[in-house]
Amino acid sequence: MAENTGIEWARHTYNPWIGCTRLSAACDNCYAEAWDRRGLQRQESRWGAHATRTRTKTRPQLRKWDREASELGIRSRVFCASLADVGDNHRSIDPAWRRDLVDDIRAFHNLDFLLLTKRPQNMAKLYPDLMEDWPANAWMGVSTENRDEMLRRGEALTKLPAKITF
Predict the structure, then answer these.
(1) In what helix (H) or strand (E) does residue 140 lie, and over which residues does it extend?
(2) Per DSSP, what are the bridge partners of residue 79?
(3) Domain assignment present for 114
(4) Model confidence over 34-74: pLDDT tens digits?
(5) Rounded to an integer, what distance in angstroms lies between the CA atom of residue 26 and that of residue 146?
(6) Is 151 inside a domain boundary?
(7) 91-121 pLDDT, tens per residue?
(8) Residue 63: inside a domain, yes or no?
(9) Which of helix, strand or coil describes residue 20?
């Protein structure tokens, strides 16, 4: 949950929760799962269909990042859920966590939240309030491993009301 990230297309990373379930061949070399596995002396894995996702405590950083961006007169890109998938429909993800994420996106106007998923088809069901009024600072992207998945996920992405997609 880095304040600043080595990811070249984002300034910060923000993880509202951690954990995911493998979906496709694109998950074969998941850095987030490997990162989590290195820290397992503290708890069980958060990866897989039977693993519980866990909430993080990084929300207070958002206020600081938004203030800094405002003072500098810039917009900061925040990669959201680098250790999860915002489209994951796992039962252990509390709906309140999703509402908090949407509230954060709406509250911090100097931050562009880059939401990335391999499950764009789940977004409308998981985030109905986001679908009604998609904020301009919520970018929506899909990750893919091949042309067929790019076409399939890309089609689902085009059905979302995001103003910026990637």
Answers:
(1) strand 138-142
(2) 13, 114
(3) yes
(4) 666 666 555 667 776 777 888 987 677 899 999 999 999 99
(5) 9
(6) yes
(7) 999 999 999 999 999 999 999 999 999 999 9
(8) yes
(9) strand
